[in-house]
# Entry
Amino acid sequence: MGTARDIALIFLSIQGLVMALIPLALICGLAYGIYRLRLLAEEYLKLAHGYAQIAHDYVERASSAIARPLIDIHAKSCMVTTIVTKLVSRRAVE
# Structure
């Protein structure tokens, strides 16, 4: 009777071991896949960073080309307004 009980216990523990090995194998596979993807992603992220820097430079040049004339006009109008205000205030004092 004791031998049959021991054999049954062994078969039950083997079933539990196999059931535990399946999730463990999946988790190990995912960890290995992430490790491999990290190496590839690092390479592609450097490439993407280069393209993003090029796009950033184009946007900077375009926005500067568009905004520079408006900034110059505003600066010159402020300069003229300041000069006129100073001249008018000096004449009012005299």
Notes: The mean pLDDT is 90. The radius of gyration is 38 Å.
